[in-house]
Design a protein that fits this description.
mainly alpha; 76% helix
Length: 241
């Protein structure tokens, strides 16, 4: 009996995972508000009724995607904040970690960037709540490093929100840099590399797209480091006046 229950639970988790993955793929080219439930279930190969065994509606699925998309980013940045000493080291580690996260999870970043101000209220609120929790974690990390006399709690929170907003902005910039050169990610024949491929052939197009994509990523990283350095310098001189 317990074995059968375990098999059913495993199948249920597999179907739920498939629904989330299918929705994420479909959301690469559209917003959640335009996505149809039957579109998702058709992509998975299950009946629409099966959807409701896992999610109340598409908003509920979207909230699950928010938790999945931002959850790993919480842990990653938390580890950076806890593990680095010195502003320069922390800035370099943060920018590098965000770039790597975007390379590994572009669909998650695209989803958050699009839905943060999108048309599904429950998803917008879930994103805002996750980012608020993220800011709480960053503020908690900052508190021992800042003078209580110069940094009242509301100012620490403001600083934390500034860092969180910058991380989201940087992740979106890295994503856009990748989108400009899809051949760099192995998308052979993609429209962004078509003109180059006509001129130099498939292998040359991939090399050219890869070089252009790498250069764009370097520019994004350099800008992000300068912006974080500016925030850091401002933090050190916040109460000078």
């Amino acid at each position: 009996m317990s074995h059968r229950c375990g098999v059913r639970q495993a199948q249920k988790e597999k179907t739920r995972r498939a629904l989330l993955d299918a929705a994420l793929r479909l959301l690469e080219d559209q917003s959640l508000s335009s996505l149809g439930l039957r579109e998702v279930t058709r992509a998975v190969g299950v009946a629409p009724a099966a959807f409701y065994r896992h999610f109340r509606d598409l908003s509920d699925l979207g909230v699950a995607l928010v938790e999945e998309s931002l959850g790993s980013l919480h842990h990653m940045i938390g580890a950076i904040l806890a593990g680095q000493d010195g502003d320069a080291e922390r800035i370099d580690a943060t920018v590098a970690a965000v770039a790597e996260h975007v390379r590994r999870y572009p669909a998650h970043i695209r989803f958050i960037a699009r839905e943060r101000h999108g048309g599904v209220r429950a998803v917008r609120e879930a994103i805002a709540a996750e980012l608020d929790r993220f800011a709480d974690e960053v503020a908690t990390d900052f508190c021992p490093r800042l003078s209580a006399e110069d940094w009242p709690p509301e100012d620490v929170r403001m600083l934390a929100e500034l860092y969180v907003d910058h991380m989201v902005m940087t992740a979106t910039a890295f994503l856009e840099a990748q989108a400009e050169h899809p051949g760099a990610a192995g998308a052979s024949g993609a429209s962004g590399a078509a003109d180059v491929e006509d001129a130099v052939g498939p292998a040359g197009a991939a090399d050219a797209a890869g070089a252009a994509g790498a250069e764009d990523e370097r520019r994004v990283a350099a800008t992000a480091r300068k912006q974080l350095l500016l925030i850091s310098l401002g933090r050190h001189h916040w109460r000078d006046g």
